[in-house]
User: Fold these one by one.
Assistant:
Number 1:
Amino acid sequence: ETGVTQTPRHLVMGMTNKKSLKCEQHLGHNAMYWYKQSAKKPLELMFVYSLEERVENNSVPSRFSPECPNSSHLFLHLHTLQPEDSALYLCASSQASGTGASYGYTFGSGTRLTVV
Amino acid sequence: KNEVEQSPQNLTAQEGEFITINCSYSVGISALHWLQQHPGGGIVSLFMLSSGKKKHGRLIATINIQEKHSSLHITASHPRDSAVYICAVGGNRDDKIIFGKGTRLHILP
């Protein structure tokens, strides 16, 4: 265990379903991230919550909706996804200094999502 | 041009060989990370560097801030080292990090 726990590990959902991915960290970090990794592509940053503020990547479709109720928990709510959204979704956390630098990036094991 | 470039993209070597993976970046950074991703997706953070050199077991990471270049070395490579190795840089101005495309390493027994 890395200290960042993601559930579920695998998820198969239909295009009309609504599901949520969960991420939990017990490292005392104050920044959390969602990344998407599609086949044969680099990791793509989706959302950042840092120092309790959300930094949104404007290229993420609205069918992905993040929620960060506190500094230890991060959710990614999914609805009406498309087959091309099938990917590995990774959560990470770090300690943001407030001056722009972040330290101690730690990744979860990811959720393998398949949209059918 | 990508802000983080890794080379080579793919590398196959025999067990026991000395492995070097390179990373060049074009942005100002606060830190550089080397990550390891095994089949199945889990990512492990190997090193975080802001200067000099770090060593952990058979892994060595170096960074040259002036040249904006880092290398990851594996000594006495083993088949269990087979994975994708990713270089990532943390920017000076925000909390985002930029990832390279990764180097796929395959060590043959």
Number 2:
Amino acid sequence: TQLLEQSPQFLSIQEGENLTVYCNSSSVFSSLQWYRQEPGEGPVLLVTVVTGGEVKKLKRLTFQFGDARKDSSLHITAAQTGDTGLYLCAGWGYALNFGKGTSLLVTP
Amino acid sequence: KAGVTQTPRYLIKTRGQQVTLSCSPISGHRSVSWYQQTPGQGLQFLFEYFSETQRNKGNFPGRFSGRQFSNSRSEMNVSTLELGDSALYLCASSPGEADTSEQFFGPGTRLTVL
């Protein structure tokens, strides 16, 4: 199993702040995915990054795939309360391997 | 399109019992995967079915089993329940054509073992 380590595990910030969460592995992945999970729901795909060094933007969210395709980061600009949730990174091996997630709480 | 549905949403069982969970994938999706989610271990892959055949299996004991029907609906069964089986069980479907497919998750079944 290819392990994905996410940090920080928990993050509590106020609306308007910026934040970055990290996803690291010692393994090379052909692609990495980021999902967001809200309480009582299943994870929902935010983005897939495929090329080393790739940067993708989704409104206030910026995703980066490391040059060596072993790590990724998610940066949120001017966080809103609606960004609250569990952020999961996942990489394909023979199955989709998930990190344990970063639990983000954004307060007014 | 309707999303992935899972039944039941909540379940309480006692140790030693068995349980069957059901998943209906998005129409047209042929791959169904099952995951166990716990606070300590996160999301762990159980198994994947594609066209009624188990295509991949995670590192779980044989008490965990599954099957897929011709209409792509899937069930998973856990026999001889243990306290540690308490978890959120998530089902995900995908078209199944590529290993970078987006997984579409259902809301999960919350299983509590007493």
Number 3:
Amino acid sequence: GESVGLHLPTLSVQEGDNSIINCAYSNSASDYFIWYKQESGKGPQFIIDIRSNMDKRQGQRVTVLLNKTVKHLSLQIAATQPGDSAVYFCAEGDSWGKFQFGAGTQVVVTP
Amino acid sequence: DTGVSQNPRHKITKRGQNVTFRCDPISEHNRLYWYRQTLGQGPEFLTYFQNEAQLEKSRLLSDRFSAERPKGSFSTLEIQRTEQGDSAMYLCASSLRGETEAFFGQGTRLTVV
């Protein structure tokens, strides 16, 4: 069936560097795409979303890029900080608000 | 604290027992979702409500699982005759209709022994 997945299971980043987390999706009918951050022992936390009719959206220190041609989604985190260490999930959603999550990428920020 | 409250935080039960979890969403949110998450995996959609109406159930939700949201506020998820494979984190989230941002609770971790 349709699925959302991630390219890399673990990403190690030096503090202050930029991080890029990638995600592949296969359901071209999804209305929007979302990035969530999950810290240990907590539920997922919304970071940013992007509608399917957009290709770029910026937030505070984060940028999401959507390439519908190759069905690829990425999250860029600028000036990565220790507090950014977490598991990051991409998810795709429909107009009803139901989300399908990928498997996640562990981001480890090293000093 | 996201404003979504789940109870209990942890539950250990013997195989074959029934368990019930509660979720209190953010009060003005009309949408409520249940997800299940196992270690190292992303959350898997189980079911969701708009107000008190259950709009969709995943194929993952066997007949042993039932969810309710009787007054359109809190929700309960019941698992009957628990199996070891039911061991997971059960997450609840809520949102406003039309909004993409869902707020998750901290989850209920179920261990079936």
Number 4:
Amino acid sequence: KAGVTQTPRYLIKTRGQQVTLSCSPISGHRSVSWYQQTPGQGLQFLFEYFSETQRNKGNFPGRFSGRQFSNSRSEMNVSTLELGDSALYLCASSNNGRTEAFFGQGTRLTVV
Amino acid sequence: GQQVMQIPQYQHVQEGEDFTTYCNSSTTLSNIQWYKQRPGGHPVFLIQLVKSGEVKKQKRLTFQFGEAKKNSSLHITATQTTDVGTYFCADGRTGGGADGLTFGKGTHLIIQP
């Protein structure tokens, strides 16, 4: 089985721009979660999607949004980028969101 | 929201020495998961503990879940250079619309040969 695939791997954006990140989960997994990882805050939960519905949401501003498609692929969008949004964004898939999470390699976003 | 505290933040050991990281929660956990992240890599699932007092072993790694299900530990016996990385505990999701995984800040294991 192929693992979780995230694209792109690296991204440089300017303050004020918006960005879309993509995640393809393991085949058969219907739950996709997104996390932000920074040296200061560690791994923080952004949101979880299950069968195209956002099931849970972390404590992030509305500039962070996401969606899931019928094939379970997911995208997350960050609008009006700020310098503090620079981070590694990790996507994880699981069977039902209640068991072990399989992480992708992440997208390293740098905002300048 | 629920918080999971993890200590120590950094641990330097000589190769061959043992290593332990601890995870504590102020509230009862339904289950706890452990992940390892190598430098430059992504978190990789190690194990999930569910039962009070549970102990599980994976070769040189021993995982424990406290009797009150408020704490957990990961112990590595005779560390090797391949053990280098950051070890995270995570509050497993309780189901029924609970939050996503809540991670501890992690323990960075540095091994000196």
